[in-house]
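batch job 7 of whatever, protein = histidine kinase
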Amino acid sequence: MLTALKDSMPILIVTSEWYVSHTTAVAEKLFAPVDNVINKHLEDLFIFPLCVEEQQKTIADGSLVQVSLRTSPNVQFLLSFYDVRSNEIFVHIAELSTYYCQNPLEDEQTRILRHAVNSANLGVWCYDLLNKTAYFSPKFKSLIGLPASAELDWDTLKSMIYHEDQPLFAELLAHHIEQGLMLHFEFRLEVRGTIHWFEFKGEQVKYCIRTHSVYGILADCTHEKDMLVALHDAEESKELAMQAGKIGTWRAIRVANQWIWNWDHQANEIFKLSEDDIGNLHLWEASLHPDDKARVTQALEASLNSGETFEQRYRGLLNDKDIVVVYAKGVVGLDEQGRPARIDGVVIDQTDVYIAQKKLQHINQELEQRVAERTADLEAAIIKAEQANRTKSDFLSMMSHELRTPMNGIIGSLDLMALSELDEDNQELLETASISANNLVSILNDILDLAKVEQGKMELESYPFSPSKMLNNIIKTFEAHARDKSVKLTVHEDIKLPLEVIGDENRVRQIIFNVVSNAIKFSVADREGGAKVTINVHWACEGVALSHLIFKIEDNGIGIAPEVQKKLFTPFTQAERSITRKYGGTGLGLAICGKLIDLMGGKVVLKSKSGEGSTFTITIPIWRPRTQQQPNILFNTLYWLSDTPWQSSLALTQLYNACTHFCNELKVIESPNEIKETDDTALIRVVTTQAGVCAEQIISPIPELVFLDEKAFANLNSTALTTQKPKPIAPQTQYAIGQLLSKLKVSQQNDEADLGELNDLSELDALLSLDNKVSSPTDDESDTSGKQHILLAEDNPFNQKLIVKQLSRLGVSCDIANNGKEALAMYKSQQYQLLLTDCHMPEIDGYELTKLIRAFESTEERSAIPIVAVTGAAMKGDKELCLDSGMNDYVSKPVRLQELKNTLGKWLDMDFTQ
């Protein structure tokens, strides 16, 4: 038999003790390199799942046992045991692959199964419990992130599993093998840095009653797991939201002709029902508030019958005492026939909202009552405030009138005196007094305008002005004061400074006025080199139209401590009380300056140290006019003769630069012999040394201006200089130099004319014209023939006298009425070309006088007389009050001659320009 089989089948014949007695040639080849297997025990040739003794007990005729080759454990065979005769067992050896592929039909089924498994993205695995070996399909390895060629054993797979899932993996596999429980669970495993979820299934395969292997599949269920987690989170979030919002759900389904009701635990909790009460509609109806029950049940029944949405807000009684307020809404669903088949809805506990609304209503009622009370109090306070404001306005108007009345006399007299023939000293004193008086009026205007200050704002004006002229006015105001305090006052103007800019001159002057005043006030005469105050004016262009005026005011006075600098621009703030006692002042000046600078959009920077002086740098945005004013060329050539180079000091540089604006050429010479005498030349002689003073006795062949420094003035004797009264080198502004050169030009044209120093060239021209037309007669000598005759209503004798002189100077005669009553009588009895009236007078004031005159004109059909108000009131609205009462125009005290002339020129048939 063996001979017949030896060439075809691997067969062994063993004894009952499993020793090999015969073998075929095919079988021998399986055991290579073992040369002879005869008398070998099967255990020497194969690795059995059990020990030999146990294994032999399980063997019977036809038994199958899966074994591994001893020499190659990875090679597995299936041994078939057959009893041939007594004490001999026939053992057939078959490889596992051969065994499972003997049937062609089974092979085709296997291929189909393999393709199906791959297309389903399933990994196949097999674990041999006997040999502790495992098989993993290429798809299995791909699913867990390994290449198909990678080596993978069972222990490696377990180590790759997420550490929290490893115990579960081992435990469930053991339960499956030992107890036959279903092997189906999920575990996590990291794939390419990301945690994936896998579904693990398996089933054991037994040979000879015992489990030899476990086969199964692996599927990636990460997506499904994520969806479940998201669904769970959403459900949990919904539950939490429903609980937080106290929202319950309810539903009813129609079965036959009955409605089956149900609601969730949250809805049950809202109505404080027990678990067994869920779905009991009668108990829910019993919990409704008696006042709401009929309405709610009828609405619900109507919705169930009609299919309309159910929506009600109602109350429920809990335990016959507590009230719950709910909002319920339900949507009806229809069946295929369009009949209501179900209703689904929500119920929301709004008790807290209801309570809050009740409290809010109560609070609103209280607030409305309080608002009504406060409104009444406020209205009463407004009435009092308006009364106080009217009182304040009346007081300010009265004070304005009382203060402006004497100022009118001062400034008017100065205006008239300026038209008189005065020597140069008196003319200069007159100019200083006039500038100081006008500055006082400006300060008075700021003080009286309390409404602007109280509101924290002021209305800025915008008009052309000369920055140099403004600076010159400030210098003239403080020049004598600085000289008395032995303070050297110096000014330096940027050569690029325009002749004219656009802005609020009064406010800019007020700022610089205050800072310069403080600099001189707090100067110290015993400083090394003497007390000094320097004003530097710079011009910084920022564009086509907008630029900046920068004032840098330096002093070497007492300085300001750092802790005081922080609050220096706060009202009523000074360094310390001893400073106030020594130097005086209210502490308001810089506070007002700070507000004005902020209002203009500028800034101020302070640098100071105690005992070393202070530097204020003030930057103010300013507009340039579209057409720049050209310099007034007074001389073709100016000669500059100085014993010191003009670049040697700031004061000389300022003087030199100022002169360049008024000539076509400024020539520096060393001797009068270099002068070429013509009709359009003048000499600027600068003396800073005693030698220069002596040289000054040389007479110039052309008109000249002489400037001396402090030392030269001290060494000057009365006979040294006779041609011109010398002027100080500093402080001199561009405007002041223009004034001096203008006078020199007039002197050159008319040696006999001595017109004095004037405010500006336009005033000079006007005055020359005026003097040619009008003489300066006294009151008694005035010839009124050909003059305009007007009526003056004024109760103040000083103002009467002043205005009469001003009118006489303008060629106008007048009659005087001491009050409004006299003025009305005189108006009715005579014909006048104009009425000039004060607003505040006894008997009848100017406003009432105007109304009476207008009424008389209307009744008597008399032509309207021009009425011009002359008043000291300067509050906002005063001009409108004058015009509303029937007046034609308005002149504010102090009355200036030029302003009076301009106003009368509009209403009288006279040519004041001649």
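notes: Residues 98-106, 577-586, 718-722, 752-786 have pLDDT under 50 and may be disordered.
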